[in-house]
Amino acid sequence: MYAGDNEGFLAGCLGNPTAGTVWVPGNLNFNAGNSANTDKSLLLDRKKGALLGKYLQNPEVFKCPADMSFVTISRKAVPRVRSISMSQSFGRNPSEKPNGGAGQWLPYSRFLTYKHEGEMARPGPSNLFVFLDEHPNSINDAAFAVKCDTRDGGARIIDFPASYHNGACGFGFADGHAEIKKWRDKRTIVAASFDGRKGMSLNVATPNNPDVAWMQDRASAPK
User: For the chain, is the Cβ count within 10 Å smaller at the N or the C terminus?
Assistant: First the structure.
């Protein structure tokens, strides 16, 4: 619907919210002083940079019920507002005008990024994921990074997908269908710390991880 109203251009994964280039503003953490953790208006208010808010209208769709992450404010547990991230493949990359944040980890110099719905021929809309549940201890900005140029023995997990669906994660694809992906490698499955007291290392080596290969094949395609 957003693309239909904007000459086929897609909301971007990263960028400047005031420039209208990012699908949702706000960086999440477990800091009680960070309003992005709890402010639902950031998900819906176009004036604050929420490009998709008017199409969704309900802020609850931005968070999976299985994500129980919260921040403690005045001794009260307040649920965080978002568990969904957009693939870093979508939007304008740093070489394009207006500059965006797409493809920084792919990297965009070697792999496709998608700013327009007409550019998704490879690997095709049914094989290109747009949204997913990100691990609650991994989620930060609005984008989920997949590094595609190091495969097999050089594979790395940059951002971790969620695994709270009995070791599985939900993905939404560019053609509109959704899949639940059951992870095969135990290195992909990390127990969640919903209060944030247990940290998580990102950008970790995971050689020959079939789950990384699955995400690489559905994140982009070589130029």
Answer: N
